[in-house]
C-alpha cells in the first residue's frame, strides 16, 4: 500500500470537527454516534442523573444495550444549563463547535436562551439540528416515544396479522430520525464547504415515519384503500410470504415476475400447468386469489422437510429466506461484528452498516457519566465568546 493510500485509509472524514449534543434516549445519540464513527469529536451533555437510556436495561455486561450502541467513542459532561455558570460553559463550548444537536422537549433550550437560532447568531458557521417528535405544529406537545409514533403515523395499522396489530420489533421511528438527522448534518457540512455558513436543521420522528408510509398513503388517498395487515405476506405481490415445512420451519419465498413464477411451478411445485391457471396467470390474479394460491403452495411445502425445500427452491432459482430467530441471526454467515470494551469485558457488537476505508475494526467504549467532565471544564474555561450579530 502506498503512503498516500495508507493515509487515506487511516483518515476519517470528520476528523477535526467538534459536535456538541444535548441528547437522550435514542434518536439524537444515534445521529451523533454515527458522526463519532466518522471521526468527529462528540461531547455529550448529560443531566446529573445521566441520559435515561443508561438505565433501559443491563444486557451489555451490566450496561444498557441502547447506550453502548449509540454512545461509543463520545465524551460525557454533566451540565445544568439552567445554572448561569453552566450555561456560560455550554456557550463557550458551542462557540467552538461545528455541529450542535439536541432532542430535548420543544422549547426547553429556548427558555434558557440557548435555542439553535441564538447559538448560530453567536457562531455563524455552526450547524444546528433539532430533533423532535412531531415538529413545531399543533401536535408538538404530544409525547413522542417510539411506539407512540408508530401508532400515530399509521405504521402499526399496517403491521401485524389480520387478527391483531403489531409493533415493529425495534425502535424504528427513533432509528429513522437519527439516520435522517445524520444525513441532514452531512448535507449541511457539504453546503458549508461552499458557503462558509452554518444551517439550522429540524428532524422529527413523525416526519420520518410518515415518509415511509407514502405507498400506503397513496393507495388510501388515490387508489382502492390502504393495504391491510398481512402478517408475513406482501399486500401487492404474490406469492411473497411464509410457508411452513413438514418439520415446522417457516420459509419466505418471493416471486417478482412471470418467468420466476413459471419456473417455480415447473421445478418446485413440479406442476407446470399451475402457472397457466387463470387464477394464477398474472400477479394481479394471484393477489386476488391469494387463498387458493396459498393452499397450493402450502400443500407442497407441507410434504417436504426444510432441507428438501431449500434444495428445491435453489434448483428453481426462487428467492427465499429462512425466518430466523435472533439466536440464529447471531450465527448468520453475513453478520460482521467488532469488539468493544464494556466494563471489564470485551463484547462483540454488530459492525457498522457502511463499510468504508476508514473503518477502525473495533469500537471505542461509551463514556461513563461525566467521565470527561473535569477535563472539559478546564479545556473550555477561558474560551472567549463572540457577540451575537
TrEMBL record:
Keywords: Transferase. This is CaiB/BaiF CoA-transferase family protein. InterPro entries: CoA-transferase_III_domain (IPR050483), CoA-Trfase_fam_III (IPR003673), CoA-Trfase_III_dom3_sf (IPR044855), CoA-Trfase_III_dom_1_sf (IPR023606). It comes from Paraburkholderia kururiensis. It holds the Pfam family CoA_transf_3. The keyword Transferase applies. The keyword Metal-binding does not apply.
Amino acid at each position: 500500500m502506498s503512503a498516500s493510500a495508507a493515509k487515506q485509509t487511516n483518515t476519517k472524514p470528520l476528523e477535526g470537527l467538534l459536535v456538541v449534543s444535548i441528547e437522550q434516549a435514542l434518536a439524537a445519540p444515534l445521529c451523533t454516534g454515527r458522526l463519532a464513527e466518522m471521526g468527529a469529536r462528540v461531547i455529550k451533555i448529560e443531566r446529573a442523573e445521566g441520559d435515561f437510556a443508561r438505565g433501559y436495561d443491563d444486557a451489555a455486561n451490566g450496561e444498557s444495550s441502547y447506550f453502548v450502541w449509540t454512545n461509543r467513542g463520545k465524551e460525557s459532561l454533566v451540565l445544568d444549563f439552567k445554572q448561569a455558570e453552566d450555561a456560560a460553559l455550554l456557550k463557550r463550548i458551542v462557540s467552538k463547535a461545528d455541529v450542535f444537536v439536541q432532542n430535548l422537549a420543544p422549547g426547553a433550550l429556548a427558555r434558557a436562551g440557548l435555542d439553535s437560532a441564538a447559538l448560530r447568531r453567536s457562531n455563524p458557521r455552526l450547524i444546528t439540528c433539532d430533533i423532535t417528535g412531531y415538529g413545531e405544529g399543533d401536535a408538538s406537545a404530544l409525547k413522542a416515544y417510539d411506539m407512540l409514533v408508530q401508532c400515530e403515523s399509521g405504521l402499526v395499522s399496517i403491521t401485524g396479522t389480520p387478527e391483531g396489530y403489531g409493533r415493529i420489533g425495534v425502535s424504528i421511528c427513533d432509528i429513522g430520525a437519527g439516520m435522517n438527522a445524520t444525513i441532514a448534518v452531512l448535507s449541511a457540512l457539504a453546503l458549508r464547504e461552499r458557503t462558509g455558513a452554518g444551517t439550522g436543521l429540524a428532524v422529527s420522528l413523525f416526519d420520518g415515519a410518515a415518509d415511509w408510509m407514502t405507498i400506503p398513503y397513496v393507495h388510501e388517498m388515490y387508489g382502492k384503500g390502504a393495504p391491510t395487515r398481512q402478517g408475513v405476506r406482501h399486500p401487492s405481490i404474490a406469492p411473497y410470504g411464509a410457508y411452513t415445512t413438514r418439520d415446522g420451519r417457516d420459509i419466505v419465498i418471493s416471486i417478482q415476475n412471470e418467468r420466476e413464477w413459471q419456473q417455480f411451478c415447473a421445478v418446485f411445485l413440479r406442476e407446470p400447468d399451475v402457472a397457466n391457471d387463470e387464477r394464477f396467470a398474472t400477479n394481479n390474479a394471484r393477489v386476488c386469489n391469494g387463498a387458493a394460491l396459498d393452499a397450493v403452495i402450502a400443500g407442497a411445502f407441507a410434504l417436504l422437510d426444510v432441507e428438501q425445500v431449500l434444495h428445491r427452491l435453489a434448483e428453481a432459482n426462487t428467492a427465499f429466506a429462512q425466518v430466523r430467530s435472533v439466536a440464529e441471526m447471531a450465527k448468520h454467515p453475513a453478520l460482521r461484528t467488532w469488539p468493544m470494551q464494556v466494563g471489564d469485558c470485551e463484547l462483540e457488537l454488530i459492525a457498522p452498516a457502511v463499510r468504508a476505508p476508514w473503518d477502525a475494526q473495533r469500537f471505542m467504549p461509551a463514556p461513563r457519566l461525566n467521565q470527561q467532565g473535569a477535563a472539559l471544564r478546564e479545556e473550555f474555561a477561558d474560551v472567549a465568546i463572540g457577540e451575537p450579530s
